[in-house]
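Working notes for the structural subgroup meeting. M.R. asked for a predicted model of this chain before we commit to crystallization trials. I am recording the input and output together here so anyone reviewing the notebook later can reproduce the run.

Input as submitted:
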Amino acid sequence: MCGIAGFWDSSAMAGEAELEQTALRMALALQHRGPDDQGTWADEHTSLALGHRRLAILDLSSEGHQPMHSADKRYVLVFNGEIYNFEALRNSLEQRGHSFRGRSDTEVMLEAIERWGIEAAVRRFIGMFAFALWDTQDRTLSLVRDRLGIKPVYYGWIEGDFVFASELKAIRQYPGFEGSIDRDALALYMRHNYVPAPHCIYQGLAKLPPGCILTLRAPADIEARPQAYWSASEAARQGLQSRAAESDSQVIEQLEAKLSEAVRLRMIADVPLGAFLSGGIDSSLVVALMQAQSARPVKTFTIGFHEEAFNEACHAKKIAAHLGAEHTELYVTPQDAMDVVPLLPAMFDEPFADSSQIPTFLVSRLARQSVTVSLSGDGGDELFGGYQRYLLTRGIWNTLKKFPSSVRTAAAGVIQSVSPAGIDRGYGLVRPLLPKGRQLASVGDKAHKLAQMLELGGPDAIYLRALTHWPDPESIVRGSHEPETVRRFIRDAAWLPDFEERMMLTDQANYLPDDILTKVDRASMAVSLEARVPLLDHRVVEYAWRLPMRFKIRQGTSKWVLRQILYRHVPAELIERPKMGFGVPIDSWLRGPLRPWAEDLLSTESL
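Returned structure, recorded in token form:
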């Protein structure tokens, strides 16, 4: 894994040394993404410069150094990510007469682009990537981002100069950067707890959307627009047009084969490798498929909490023991969380309020003590119907529409009159009486979210509210006009016949890249750890869209087909329990040991 940065100066006044010095300063801001090597390259005739920081994973020799030139010297590349099928691509290129100096996937990418052109080559890549490619012949600069948005790239213009980087901290090093806040993006943040793409917290900058290529023919080419070579919506459309007609057993066999291959490719590395293991279905399945293909115990890493309602570490430990993994766990205290908080602004650059960023950073730091690469189970919820909101939204609307709005308003008031903690205490008295498969976690929080939905007028509005943290952001961000991003996507996804699939597509195209994958990338890269997500192999994603909903949600059971695969490796009794998610007990911490800190932060003097 690496960090990339660069710029295209519109003034054409700087010499090569000055260009490289600026690129070096930008790259140094990304040292955490690539502690093993650094490089710069500049062309003073066009005033373009590229910078790179390297975390060596494949071909640890100097042959993997970047920026890298193609064999014919036409292309120059800086690349962040991994191309997992690089060996197959290399064999294909060698049969066509290409030769290679080293063993890196970067070199294979360059020769693939030279052979097939940038878009045709990218369509052949299986992996996660964000890269910048300079074409010395056509004098074009292209930015490319992987299909699912696993790897980040920001871009924009500063005083007419084009700039880009893996993280905003590198762009902040560019001369003339002012960092004016985009208040519309701030309104989006207040609604979603993150800033959705293509928006950015700084005026004049943007995120390249997943599955897109942006090509510029001049530094001031502000009319250039990202062009999609792949999209989640198109994958869904094609999936619906070729629905799988196979039996349950056939689908289970086919999906396990695809997942096993995705895991196998992501176990290719020249450095130590392990996996995050939360004890949930997705991470347990990844570890099970790793262990099935490994001659040695897989190294697994788990974060636990002393608060029982949030702790899955005990379950992860049992699963690791059953699979024969080499397991490491760390129990987190409120002080551990406090120690992480000051690191978060520099880690994420943009406002980002997913509290699971704290345990994600801690488990990444724990894993980095033993490995350089860690596989993660992210993506299973969005692909296979794992979130409880998928199960609840239709039922909520079917129930709500039976009652007048006045009755729903009164019910909301009753629920909100009791705190989430009070509801949890009451539920704790009856929970032991319920069937194990029907027990829920965080009932108080869910009840208050339900109360917010009681006055809404349809399933689309219910789902948007489920994704909303502040219902009317413009009322608190003065001078803002909230752009239609997720709201518009939900509306545009109305062509999908099942509302559950519309929710899943919305999350896959928005929440997954802009929250979940952003969190994993920044937290892991902060400690120079490469995180790989096999469930988001685009071939798995496309196959998942071919599966009818009964393979995802069946008789109230989420991720049905993933469970059937996992049961082949792990007994059901180790898996079946209420979904918990990767949350932190932030409410009890803020009311307890972290209360003095929070009150100081919000005191009149501080504000």
